[in-house]
Amino acid sequence: MLSKKDRRRKRKSRKPESNFMKKPLTEKFVKQSIIKWLFRNGWGRNLEVGELRDQGVDIRVKNNKVSRFFLIETKSEGKTRQVSESTFVHSLGQIITRMKTGGTTRYYYGLGLPELSAKIAIRRVPWQVAKKLLLYIFSVDKTGKVKQYSWQDLKKVQ
Hints:
24% strand; alpha/beta; Trna Endonuclease, Chain: A, domain 1; 6 strands
């Protein structure tokens, strides 16, 4: 039997799980994390951000130096792997329907996804398709860290 002092010490040593780690990532958090990453990486002009109920792409931003745009569709984190899979497929369909053809302006496209959905996308989007469509995958972790995957990155892991 543990003494009162030992029980207290044991209780203090247990680290309670924070609510931050339990909550799924919201679309707003994913979007804000990607916007911060874009600004730090030279994409800050003419930023347009869609709200949850808006039609169209979630993030539209112009490069600071050249006439190129990034159109990014973002999604929140699913509660299960099946929902994460569905989230990826839904976001891919949405960004494809928003792709522009022709004209002189070059558009890059992105899927802004929580880490688990991004891993599914990295595995399932053929690198050849990503190259042809100028499609990038943005992975956002629970701390807000963003990692961008190009077609070259997809080619290395597929």
